[in-house]
Design brief:
By secondary structure, the protein is α+β, with helices and mostly antiparallel strands. 15% of the residues lie in helices and 26% in strands. It has one helix spanning 63-75; strands at residues 7-13, 16-22, 31-34, 49-52.
Length: 86
Amino acid sequence: MGGGVGRADRIPTLEGRVSLKVPPGSASGQKLRLGGKGLPKPHDGAGDLYADLSIVLPGTLTEREKKLYEELRDASRFDPRSRFRR
């Protein structure tokens, strides 16, 4: 969990693992830039590395997880289908 509320994750780079802060409200397909963590430049340090976010949902849920998702759905004002209702 983390896309909706944000979190920090350790991700691999060319120099080893670094902490990446995923901001609240992040979505699949969004790119986050890690300055200076990419491929080396010929005469000037390193380029930037981009992390592509992929929000992955669990294939199966426990009863507690299902209940929590239902509670969140009922409490939330967010409607992911609103863009299709024009």
